[in-house]
Structure formats: C-alpha cells, structure tokens
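thought: user wants a sequence for this fold. calling inverse folding tool.
action: design(structure=
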C-alpha cells in the first residue's frame, strides 16, 4: 500500500482528496489542516507521498517553506503540490524548493490519482501545459513575466496583498515584523512599477489572476 498525507486548510478539498485517493487504493490517507500539524504528522508517519497546498491558511506561499522543512528532515521525500496557482514562476519555485510534482486544484480526480501514483513511483509530475510554461521560464524566454524576478518572500507578500490582506495581517501570517512587510512592499512597488499601495494591490491581483 502507498501511504499519503494531505495538508490543506480547505475542509471540502481535504475530504474530497482523501476520499478520491482512498477509493483509488492508497492507504492510509492521512490529513492535516495546518502547517504545524502537517509537519508533525509527516515526521511521525513518514508517508510515501505528501500532498501540500501552497497557500495553506492564506500564508502566501508558506507551503514552500513546509516543503523545504520536510526535505531537511527527509531529503528523498516525495512531495506533490496541490495549488490554485497556475503561474509558471510559482510552479518553478515549488519545484526548485524540492517538490516532485505540481497539480492544480481544478484537475480531475483521475488526474490527481495519476499524479500521486507517478510521484510515489519516483517520477516527476507536471501537467503538459504547466510543463511548457515552466520550461519557458527556465529557458529565459518568459523573462517578460514580472513575477520571474521576485524573491520567495516577495511572492508571499504579493500573494497576500492580492488577497486583500493589510500589512499588519500579512506580518502576523508570515511571522515577520510589520517593518519587514513595509520594506518588502516598497521593493515590490519598485520592481512592479507601482506608484502606491492601491496600484500595487491592483497589479498583484492582475498578475496572479492572469499569469503571463
């Protein structure tokens, strides 16, 4: 049997994925609704595959930090990202962090099962369209994408700004100081050529909703 741990803070997604994978023969299929309990369960049970939501509890791209922590504990861990983000830069960052595969939340049940099986077998998984986008980013042909030049922290802050979160809330969710958020936002304004915060938020929404 192939064991799976799903880490996602959306109950419907969590329950749906658990049922789909259990029906497909995976066992046990463990679940966690936050990063801390997810990491603890991973260390306790060492599942064959961890399915990780990138934006768990709205923490920007906090799932990337979880991927890195898991790999520090178990360098050969097999991790599949389950995310609503279809931007090639975010996909690439996830793979660079050590994820074995990336699947979108609007994928079919059959495709999810295929992705988990493929990652469990030690093979990387990427949907064909995403693979092409990631290849373009990696080859430099997608350099026009404004997100390509952002750091992981800048991407986290930008994602939360797009969700309408104020600086204080972002600081709390990312566990950084208010000043850090202000500084990162200032850097984002320069990189994305936004004159003020409303412009930055508007740009963030457009870029993350309509990836280049």
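)
observation: tool returned 212 residues.
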């Amino acid at each position: 049997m192939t064991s799976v741990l799903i880490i996602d803070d959306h109950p419907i997604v969590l329950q749906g994925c658990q049922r789909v994978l259990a029906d497909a023969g995976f066992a046990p299929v463990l679940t966690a609704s936050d990063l801390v309990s997810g990491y603890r369960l991973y260390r306790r049970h060492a599942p064959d595959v961890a399915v990780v939501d990138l934006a768990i509890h709205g923490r920007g791209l906090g799932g990337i930090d979880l991927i890195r922590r898991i790999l520090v504990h178990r360098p050969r861990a097999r991790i599949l990202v389950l995310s609503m983000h279809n931007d090639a830069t975010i996909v690439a960052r996830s793979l660079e962090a050590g994820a074995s595969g990336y699947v979108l939340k609007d994928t079919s049940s059959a495709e999810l099962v295929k992705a988990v099986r493929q990652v469990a077998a030690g093979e990387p998984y990427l949907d064909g369209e995403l693979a092409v986008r990631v290849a373009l980013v990696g080859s430099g042909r997608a350099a026009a994408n404004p997100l390509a030049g952002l750091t992981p922290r800048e991407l986290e802050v930008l994602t939360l700004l797009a969700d309408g979160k104020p600086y204080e809330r972002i600081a709390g969710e990312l566990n950084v100081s208010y000043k850090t958020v202000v500084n990162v936002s200032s850097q984002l304004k320069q990189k994305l050529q936004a004159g003020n915060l409303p412009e930055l938020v508007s740009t963030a929404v457009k870029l993350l909703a309509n990836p280049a």
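thought: summarizing for user.
answer: Here is the designed sequence. Strands lie at 4-7, 29-32, 49-53, 79-83, 101-104, 125-126.
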